[in-house]
What does this fold into?
Amino acid sequence: MKYPDIIDFRSDTVTKPTKPMLEAMFNAKVGDDVFEEDPTIKALEEKAASMFGKEAALFCSSGTMTNQIAIKIQTQPGQEIVFEKDSHVYYAEGGGVAFNSGLSMRMISGDRGRIKAEDVIENINPDNVHAPITSLVSLENTSNKGGGSCYDIETIRSIADACQSHGLKLHLDGARIFNAIIASSYSATEIGKPFDSISVCLSKGLGAPVGSVLISTKENIKEARRVRKVFGGGMRQAGFLAAAGIYALDHNISRLKDDHSRARAIGNTLTKLSFVEEVLPVETNIILFRITNKISTDDFINKLAAHNIKAAPFGKQIIRMVTHIEINDDMVEHTLSVLQKF
Ligand SMILES: Cc1ncc(COP(=O)(O)O)c(C=O)c1O
It folds into this structure.
């Protein structure tokens, strides 16, 4: 079996469009989207909104932008957002929660990126002039730093109930929500219902080169469109990119189960290797594992790289590997045989 020059497990963001996806992009009908005249973007937004049972959606350049816009439109400066301490919106969006929205942050230490309704209730500030007003809760499903862990729908519903009874909005960072949907028993509409806003990335497991959609009510999306412009995110003939998103939603969701079974195979083998101390349970396409102190993270990454295999350092002695559309069974087998000879 021949392999590409590099077998890249660093992230599911590294994928390039397949030939049929490129053809769909090439054939897209486009227009100026700031004038709301791009038919392909409109079609993507309608499709995404209806999949999650919501009224409207907005195509943006990145998951960071959809998260940040959702936070901006549902809070006022000086208020407080609640999230798990390992949330992407906190550790990997450049401090945007403070920079863009002027928010105070309340971090909860959860279980592999997941929190519970009790955590939310305990972390709502009292109505007292000393405390910032708690106004928004943000959940991440699947959780990146949690090793692709998924929420169950009952937990999400109970968090939504807690939010509703305390007048809080609930946002979903669903960068990998379709991985959660494929790994769990809920549908997109079911998982969409408890949330006020949902960010979905097209450019991760779904294999599009660029793009995320923010999904919410018509009123919220009208405001989001204004904020997107302020953030410099108004795109013109971006229907070429939206066409990749439509293709991804039509063709690349059910195949995620293959990414998950490949990730499980890698996780199972890793647990048997002497230099691996712990592998987080593999629920979706992300494998997070801790190597012993006998080898440094850099040496481990370099040793793999010498075999043209890329993995990502993810903290002290922690390595992340992610399966995606460009990883096949032969590549997994080859990688495992390399690891077994370390
Ligand atoms: C959980 C999560 N949310 C949001 C994002 C942001 O997406 P983007 O890289 O498109 O800004 C990422 C990116 O890796 C992510 O893992």
